[in-house]
Amino acid sequence: MNLTLHVDAERWRAHLAATIDALPGIVPVVKGNGYGFGRDLATAEAARLGLGTLAVGTYAEAEDALISWAGDVLVLSAWRPWETLDDPRLIHTVGRVEDLRAISRSARVLIEGATSLARHGLGEPELADAIDAADGLTVEGLSIHLPLAGHGDNARQAARWAAQLGQSQLPAKTLWVSHLNAAELADLSAAHDDLAIRPRVGTALWLGDLDALRPAATVLDVHRVRRGERVGYRQRQITRSGHMLVVGAGTSHGVGLDAPKANRSMVERGKTVARGTLEAAGWARSPFIVDGRQRWFVEPPHMHHSLVLLPDGVTPPGVGDEVTARVRFTTTAFDAVSFE
Ligand SMILES: *Cc1c(COP(=O)(O)O)cnc(C)c1O
């Protein structure tokens, strides 16, 4: 296999089980590339854990989930009038009064409240209108989506919506939330024993114990290269003699397509600036680690391969060996997931 996600199965599943125990009412989120595992595999794991509701990102993903998952399927994307998927197991997220009026009366819905994330959802003053507009629908509760960088404010925002839900005419006293930690969820539950709380969790579930996961790419070829020699699609000159690895992972796997990083600290920002200068000079650090360091790409990767330079003094791996790759799980398409 070219790019494999090695999973320490026992450790990973122990983390999944511990997360489920710590977060009562958890709704596993399986969207996009299934957090690196693939949506089929993650869905099967969620089923093994005996959970009843699965959250997916889009209506296209929901179509698959209605086949692969036996329980309810919550769609996180806001429902809009052009969406036609309809199923008794489907739960829609609806955040505009007009959409609550427009959706089929057989639909099960969550009413979405806005938060500081400012993506979708209605404001607190609109809730009464929304409840009117939801007449005839099966409302399964109120949903809020909170930012990742909550700056300590997520619990307060959740508490406000919990209070709104508690006082409202909605019969379904369930608050569906994201991005609250176990302590914040426990506090919220304790303060609102009239409400059921359902945390939607993806990253902290699937990727919460990164030590259980090791992405690695296969070395397909190793060449001796000399300074000045031209190689690759771009016929770039090698800057230092050494070895060039042909690694079996490239842009088709998401390698070399880094999404912008949310750099928080000055040190991280400094590193980005330094990297930017080198990138301006046409250099980029690959995700592949040899001898403890991420090595430079010889040229931008293309489809299924990357060319990586190991300067003299670094012992090259052999053909067929694997090199560990530091990749972003949610943007990487692994060829295989290997449970070990
Ligand atoms: C993606 C998503 C989640 C899960 O987010 P993670 O950070 O992966 O846990 C929860 N709620 C909504 C609405 C989402 O879109």
Total number of β-strand segments?
Answer: 18
Structural shape? elongated
User: Which ligands are bound?
Assistant: pyridoxal-5'-phosphate
Strand content: 25-35%
The helix count comes to 9
Low-pLDDT stretches are: none
Radius of gyration: 24 Å
Q: Measure the end-to-end span.
A: 15 Å
- Structural class, by secondary structure, is alpha/beta
User: Could you state the order of secondary-structure elements as H and E?
Assistant: EHEHEHEEHEHEHEHEHEEEEHEEEEE
What is the residue-mean pLDDT, rounded to a whole number?
94
Q: What level of helicity do the residues show?
A: 25-40%
For the largest sheet, list the strands in their spatial order: 2-9-8-7-6-5-4-3
Largest sheet: 8 strands, parallel
How would you describe what is shown here?
This protein is an alpha/beta fold and 340 residues long. It has 9 helices and 18 strands. The protein has helices at residues 9-22, 39-48, 59-68, 97-102, 127-133, 154-167, 182-191, 203-206, 266-280, and strands spanning 3-7, 27-28, 53-56, 72-78, 90-94, 108-113, 138-144, 174-178, 196-201, 213-225, 230-231, 236-237, 242-247, 285-290, 293-297, 306-311, 322-325, 336-339. It has an 8-stranded parallel beta sheet. Strand 14 and strand 15 form a beta hairpin. Helix 6 runs parallel beside helix 7. The longest helix has 15 residues, at 266-280. The two termini are 15 Å apart. The model has no long low-confidence stretch (mean pLDDT 94). The protein binds pyridoxal-5'-phosphate.
